Amino acid sequence: QVHLVESGGGLVQPGGSLRLSCGSVELSLDYYAIGWVRQVPGKEREGVASINSDGSTWVAPSVSDRFTISRDNAKNTAFLQMDRLESEDTGVYYCAAGPLALWLRRIYNGMNYWGKGTHITVSS
């Protein structure tokens, strides 16, 4: 289906910050919940954070004190601010858009749209 465009990944030292962006120039995301799912080596796929069309958010407890999700519908874009990154955050982060119900049920395979993923490496 339609690809979302992700940016903001890269190599960062422990304690550093990155800001991920996810958007589309092909369709409006106004009515979708947008979020990120990550694949960390050696761990199962996990939801990181999501934000609904009304602005309500969810952030995984493991990163809730360090990550913040937001969206700007005027820019048709969602953002994931990641602070105080740790080596355990290393992995591939995929943004996705779909019904809030799927995010809440952790049914990521049912998301309508996906980005190609962005690689994040936290290392000194």
Q: In words, what does this structure look like?
A:
The structure is a single chain. The protein is mainly beta and 124 residues long. It is built from 1 helix and 11 strands. Strands 1, 2, 3, 4, 5, 6, 7, 8, 9, 10 and 11 form an 11-stranded mixed β-sheet that branches. The chain is globular.
Please sum up the structure shown.
This protein is mainly beta and 124 residues long. Helix content is 5%, strand content 47%. Strands 1, 2, 3, 4, 5, 6, 7, 8, 9, 10 and 11 form an 11-stranded mixed β-sheet that branches.
Average the pLDDT over all residues and give the rounded result.
Answer: 96
Beta-strand portion reads over 45%
Shape call:
globular
Give the % helix. under 10%
- Gyration radius, rounded: 13 Å
Order of helices and strands: EEEEEEEEEHEE
* Helical/strand content category: mainly beta
Number-wise, the strands total: 11
- Which stretches of 5+ consecutive residues score pLDDT under 50? none
Question: Mind summarizing the main beta sheet?
Answer: 11 strands, mixed
The N- to C-terminal Cα distance equals 37 Å
Write out key terms for the chains shown.
single chain; about 120 residues; mainly beta; eleven-stranded mixed sheet; 1 helix; 11 strands
